[in-house]
Amino acid sequence: MKKTNKKKRTHVPFRMNMLFFVVFLLFSALIFRLGIVQIVQGEDYQRKIERTEDVTVNTSVPRGKIYDRDGEVVVDNMPQNAITYTRSSSPDTEEMMQTAEKLAKLIEKETDQVTERDMKDFWIGQNEEKAKAKISDAEWASYENDELTEDEIYDMQLERITEEDLKELSAAQLEVLAIYREFTSGYAQTPQIVKNQNVTDVEYAVVSENLSSLPGVNTTTDWERTYSYDNTLKTVLGNISSSKEGLPKEMADYYLARGYSRNDRVGKSYLEYQYEDVLRGQKTKMKNITDKSGNVLDSEIITEGRRGKDLVLTIDMDLQTALEQIIEEELRKAKSGYHPFLDRAFVTMMDPNTGEVLAMAGKKYEVVDGKAEVFDFALGNMTTSYAMGSSVKGATVLTGYMTGVNTPGEYIVDEPLKLASTPTKSSWFNRGGAFGISDTYALMRSSNVYMFKTAMEIGGARYVPNGTLKISDDAFPTMRKYFGQFGLGVKTGIDLPNESTGYKGFVDQPGKILDFSIGQFDTYTPLQLAQYVSTIANGGYRMQPHIVKEIREPVSETNKIGPIAEEIQPTVLNTLDLEPGWIEQVQEGFRLVAQASEGTASSYFGDAPYKMAAKTGTAEGVYDGPLKEKNKNEMTWNVTLVGYAPYDNPEVAMAVVVPWAYEDSSSSIPINHYIGRRAMDKYFELKEQKASRKPSEAVIDQEVLTKKETEAAETE
Predict the structure, then answer these.
(1) How far is CA 383 from the centre of its chain?
(2) Which of 95, 294, 406, 657 lies 20 to 30 A from 228 at CA?
(3) Rounded CA separation 602/617 (Å)
(4) How far apart are CA 582 and CA 452, in angstroms?
(5) pLDDT digits (tens, 9 = 90+) for 612-643
(6) Which residues lie closer than 8 Å to 694 by C-beta, 6 or more apart?
(7) Position 290 pLDDT exceeds 80
C-alpha cells in the first residue's frame, strides 16, 4: 500500500508541470499579439476606436428626360465633369484654406461670384498686422477694458478697408478665395459643387490624381438640363434651381421634410415643378465613416441611385414648332401696318376626345434696343385672359336650351334693340330690319340679337321697344354656372400649376348680361376656349386637358424609351345635361360658319379638304395691355376663332386668340383667320406625312425595348 501511494505522488507533479508549460506558451502568445497590436497596428486601431458614427448622405442623380408624343427628346441631361468638396461636421478653417490653395493650382476657377465682403474677410485673414493697424491704440485700449467687443472691432476693420487695400489681392488669391467660398457654402457631410462648368479633362484627371492631398475634395459626374428645341415651349416646360441655388427658400421646409438636401436641384416652375416627384429620381445613398472631429475616413455606397422617370408629352413638337413659326410670321406681317397695341397671339390645339394638348403655342412681339424680337409666350395660353367675343355664342345657345328658354330650331326675331337710355344694340348684318332667324342661322351669321334675347329670357325679361329691362339678379350666376360647364370662367384642370380662371366683370347693372352673352364682359384664357370648343365637338363631355401622356421607366440606353410606368387616362370633368339633338344643332351651326356661303369663316375654310366647323369672334373694349398707362381709354378689338375638324368626326379642336389686333374697323385685319387656316392645314399636312413615312430607327428601338421590358416586368 505504501508503494502504491508513492507512485501517485510522482505522477501528479508531472501533469502540473505540463499544465504550467501550456499556460506559459499561451501567455507568451498573448503578450506577443498585444505587442503587435500596440506597436505595429496601434495607430490604425486608435483611429477605429475614435470613430463615433456612420453618417448616411444622399447624392443627386440626373432628372428624368422629357419626350414629345412621337418619342423625340425635348429635354435631356448633358453629363459634365464636376469637382466637389464635402465639409466635415467640425471644419478646420486653416486646413480648408490650405486645401483651397492647393486646388487653385490645379484648376481654373471663375471669381465673378466673389463679393466685396468676401474680399474684405479674406484680406483680413491674409493681412493680420495691417488689419490690426486699422484700429487705433485708444480703440484697442477700449477693447482691453471690455468697452468694445471683438465683433465691433472686426466691423470697424471691415469699414476701414479701402479699395486700394483690396487691389492688393492678386488674381491667384482671388481664385483661392472663390474656391474657399464654395467650400464654406456647403452643408456638413454633403458634397458641394466647387466647379461643374467647363471642367477640362486635364483638370479632372489631375485633381483625381491628387485627392489624397486634398481632404474633402472629390471628382464626380454632374449633369445639366439641355433643350433640343431651344426656347420652343420653354415657358411651359419650366425651370429647375441651380446647384448653387439649391432648394428655393419659400419651399425649403417642404422639400427637407421629404428627404431632400438643401443644395438639391428641384423644379421651380410649371412642368418641372408639377412633376417633381416623378422627375427627381432615386438618389444614391452613401455612408460616410467619420472620426470624432467629423472628418470623413471612408465612404461606401449603400444604395445605387437611379435617375428620374421620363415624361412623354401629348405635345407634337413638329406641330408646336410649325405653329410658333406661323404665329411669328403673321405677327410680323401685321405689325408692318399701324397696329401699335398688337403684341401677342396664341393657338391651342387639343384632341377633343381625350383632352390631350397637341400644341400650345404663343408668341410675344417686343422691340428690344430698336430691334423687333419675338419671344416664346406659350404659357400665356393658360395664364392670361381676354374678352373672346362671339366665339362663345355656342355656349349661349346651349345655355338657352338647358335653361328651357329656347328650343332647337326655334325662330327669334333679329331686330335692332332700342332700350330706354341705352344706345341701339343690333347684329352687324342687320342694322334696321326685323326678320326671324333660327339658332343655326344665328350662329352662322353671328347674330348678337339672338343672344341678347336669350339672355333676357334667362333673366326673366322680355324685350319691349323703348322700355327698360328688368333682369333678375340670378341671370349672371345662372349663365356663369352653365358657361363653367364648358370650361369658361373656371379652371380647365390642366396638369400644370398657376392656371388662370379669367376675370369676372363687375356687375354694376343687370343689363350687362347682354354683353356677357356675346363674350364681351367676362374674360377667358385661350386654353379655356379650346376646352369649350372641344366640349361642343365631342358631344357634350368636358375633357380635362393634359400635357403629359405617359410616365416611363428610365433606361440607360441612348435614344431608347423605357416601359410604361403610368399612362394618363382621359378624364371627363362633367357632362352637359342635354336632350337628344341639342348639341347636334349647335354643331350644325358651327359647320355652317365654316362651310356655308354666308358663314363668317367660309371665305377662309370653305375650300378646306378636312371639312371644318368653326365660330369666329370679335370683342371690342378698352385697351388693357402693357401700354395702358400711356394709352388710357383707347379702344381696341380682340379677334378669336374656335373650330374643330373634321366636323362629322372631330379629331382636333383649336382656339386662336389675338388680343388688341387693331384699333378701329377701318384698320381691321383677319389675323385670327390667317393663323387658324394655316394652323389647321399644318396639322393635317403633318398627319399625312407621318402616316406615309417609315418609323425612324430610334422609334423602332423604343418600341422593341418597351415591349420586351414591359413583358419582363409583367412576368416578374
Answers:
(1) 13
(2) 657
(3) 14
(4) 20
(5) 999 999 999 899 888 888 888 889 999 999 99
(6) none
(7) no
Residue 26 has pLDDT above 70, yes or no: yes
What pTM value is reported for the model?
0.82
H or E element, residue 674: helix 671-692
Check: CB of residue 104 under 8 Å from CB of residue 179: yes
Res. 295: pLDDT tops 80: no
Q: Model confidence at 559, in pLDDT bands (50, 70, 90)?
A: low
The closest alpha carbon to 156, from 145, 142, 168, 169, belongs to 142
Measured CA distances, 697 to 317, 318, 323, 559, 704 (Å): 18, 18, 27, 9, 11
**Geometric angle at alpha carbon 152, from 146 and 157, rounded to 5°:** 125
Q: Which domains does the chain have, with CATH numbers?
A: 51-81+224-313 (3.90.1310.10), 324-692 (3.40.710.10)
Location of C-alpha cell 425649403:
252
What share of residues in the chain are helix, strand, coil (percent, to 5)? 40, 20, 35
Strands (E), 228-340: 284-290, 296-303, 310-313
Cell of 132: 490690426
Q: What residues pair up with 76 in beta bridges, in sequence order?
A: 226
The residues, ordered by sequence, that sit 6+ positions from 165 with a Cβ below 8 Å of its Cβ are 123, 127, 130
Per-residue CA distances from 519 to 393, 451, 480 (Å): 7, 10, 12
Q: What are phi and psi of 682, to 5 degrees?
A: -65, -40
Coil vs helix vs strand at 641:
strand
Cis peptide before 570 (omega within 30 of 0): no
CB 528 within 8 A of CB 488: yes
The CA radius of gyration of the chain, in Å to the nearest whole number, is 38
Secondary structure element (H or E) that encloses residue 564, with its range: strand 564-567
Query: Which is nearest to 683 in space by CA: 612, 626, 594?
Result: 612
User: Per the residue annotation, which of 60, 88, 243, 390 is the catalytic one?
Assistant: 390
Cα–Cα distance for residue pair 260/25, rounded to 1 Å: 59
The string of DSSP codes covering 45-80 is HHHHHH--EEEEEEE--PPPPEE-TTS-EEEEEEEE
